[in-house]
Amino acid sequence: MASIPRTVADIFGDYCCRRRGLINALTHDVDTFFAQCDSDKDNLCLYGYPDGTWEVTLPSHEVPPVIPDPALGINFARNKMSRDEWLYLVAVHSDSWLLNVAFFYAAYLNKNQRTRLFNLINRLTNVVENVKKWNVVQNTPRIDKSGEASGSNSRIPQKISSDGPSKTTSKIVEDSHMESEEEQEETPCGRCGEVYQKNEFWIACDFCPLWYHGKCVNVTTTMADEIDKYECPLCALKRTKA
User: Fold this and answer.
1) Inside any domain, residue 144
2) Which domain covers residue 183, as residue numbers?
3) The pLDDT of residue 58
4) Is residue 154 included in any domain, yes or no?
5) What is the pTM of this model?
6) How far is CA 124 from the centre of its chain?
7) Which of 159, 210, 223, 238 could form an S-S bond across to 202 if both were Cys, CB 3.0 to 4.6 Å?
8) Which residue has the higher pLDDT, 26 or 200?
9) Rounded mean pLDDT, 111-138
């Protein structure tokens, strides 16, 4: 059984992973998600998990539940609204649930720690904003180099250091469809919480959605070039406790 997040960094990491799962459900995996929310089934919930995955399933049978449950019965409204309106409704409930879980874990933190946690979370775009961005991208024709209209979005955002581009992971390529220049600039460091500034060297963890200042995790650009898959301190700690 996974350990319960207790520190600001652990709770924020948990929030980021659950958020990523929910965003994927409502964007990249939206057709699968839509099909699983059969209105003829019982009360279904959309869960985001600490490993970055998602699941449509029944609510917990435990009373009280280990963590707060998401909104019940999201499937019942599916056929009573337009697809986009229904997805936005699910996204709103998903954002509410993410904050609910984060501050459920944060109950034992002090005032300053809770403020720091909220500020970290508030620097990220929420699920609703990402769903809106996804719909805009999907509905906007793209122009490729030959001048032909295209529906793909091939831009790959990178954090740039003074020595050149930092390491880009396959996960970041996948997530690039959801990022804008503004979102890159608001990315918080998973260690210190400061946001990304131009020409800083950052490195992405290959096992969670977090980015870090190289200096915060003692990784230089030379070291990054030699790393096949980077595991951040938070993920390394979780693995040793598993």
Assistant:
1) no
2) 149-241
3) 92
4) yes
5) 0.64
6) 9
7) 159
8) 26
9) 89
